[in-house]
Write a structure and sequence with these properties.
- Strand 3, helix 1 and strand 4 form a beta-alpha-beta unit.
- By secondary structure, the chain is an alpha+beta fold.
- The termini are close together.
- It is rod-shaped and about 150 Å long.
- The model has no long low-confidence stretch (mean pLDDT 84).
- The chain has three domains: 90 residues, Ribosomal Protein S5, domain 2, CATH 3.30.230.10; 46 residues, no CATH class; 137 residues, no CATH class.
- Helix 7 runs antiparallel to helix 8.
- It is built from eight helices and six strands.
- It has a four-stranded mixed β-sheet with strand order 1-2-4-3.
Length: 292
């Protein structure tokens, strides 16, 4: 299936505490380039997101934007510093011993000391955030791929139409080609007759000259190769494989054959058709540059 490299998709999911939004935009590029813009504390999500994009896309620059918010209060967490409590306990016992006091350290005494028990906000639940990111990324990329496929279908239809037009132009050229030699022969004969007046024309030398011109102006090989290129191009448009680079290469070959026909034909009518064909090939080249 032909897919464009231009697309957009977005998704937003949330829990009671977190809201995460992902936007994905893609444009044409020679290779696949993934650029992620996310809050610094979500940097560990980058590798997973890039690998996921790489598993679904083959070409294009893909910019991904992540917006993250805390929309609910986190549950407080009670933290007990056991090491500090033990240090307090031992120090109090040493103090009692040095003062020759018989005293036990009670729990209520320890918990009242600074730093033993604190109430803090819970840390970000990265596993929950990762699940939000994974689901949002999948939805955003689904939308982006759908847009690329829809645009790709339009590109394929346009390219098929232009290929049909090129086939029509080359058929016209092929129909005109035989007349180029006969016209040249007739004009050459008339020109020689004018120059030599009543002198008899050497028909054998004239025939040799015409044969030389016919060989030089022969475009049958170029027309045959163009026909093959048109069939390959149409086949790739209809295939499920990655198509962009293949289509670019075949267009280069088409352009080469058309240029050769233009240089060989030596005929004004064919030259006009060649110019029209080159114009269509340039339009096709611009379209193909946006195909994955």
């Amino acid at each position: 299936m032909i897919r464009s490299m231009t697309g957009y998709g977005q998704a937003q999911l949330q829990t009671e505490i977190y809201s995460l939004r992902i936007e994905a935009r893609s444009v044409n590029h020679r290779f696949l380039e993934v650029v992620l813009r996310a809050p610094r504390h979500l940097g560990e999500l980058e590798d997973g997101i890039k690998k996921y994009v790489q598993s679904r896309l083959h070409r294009g620059r893909v910019d991904i934007f992540i917006t993250f918010e805390e929309i609910g209060a986190k549950k407080p967490v009670l933290v007990v510093d056991n090491d500090l409590a033990l240090a307090y306990h031992n120090s109090l016992l040493q103090l009692a011993s040095s003062l020759d006091l018989d005293a036990a350290v009670e729990l209520k005494t320890l918990v009242s000391l600074p730093g033993i028990v604190t109430l803090t906000k819970s840390e970000d639940d990265m596993e929950q955030i990762k699940q939000l990111a994974d689901s949002s990324m999948a939805q955003a990329l689904d939308a982006l791929v759908n847009m690329r496929e829809e645009e790709g279908a339009r590109l394929a239809a346009d390219l098929k139409s232009r290929t049909d037009l090129l086939i029509g132009l080359t058929n016209e050229i092929a129909a005109m080609a035989p007349a180029v030699v006969t016209d040249y022969q007739s004009k050459l004969h008339e020109r020689i007759a004018e120059l030599l007046d009543d002198v008899e024309v050497d028909e054998s030398r004239l025939a040799n000259e015409v044969a030389f011109f016919a060989d030089k102006a022969d475009i049958s090989e170029e027309l045959t190769r163009l026909d093959s290129h048109f069939k390959q191009f149409s086949g790739i448009l209809a295939s499920e494989d990655e198509a962009g680079r293949k289509l670019e290469f075949i267009l280069q070959e088409m352009n080469r054959e058309v240029n050769t026909i233009g240089s060989k034909a030596n005929d004004l009518r064919i030259s006009r058709l060649v110019i029209e064909a080159k114009s269509e090939l340039e339009k096709m080249r611009e379209q193909v540059q946006n195909i994955e």
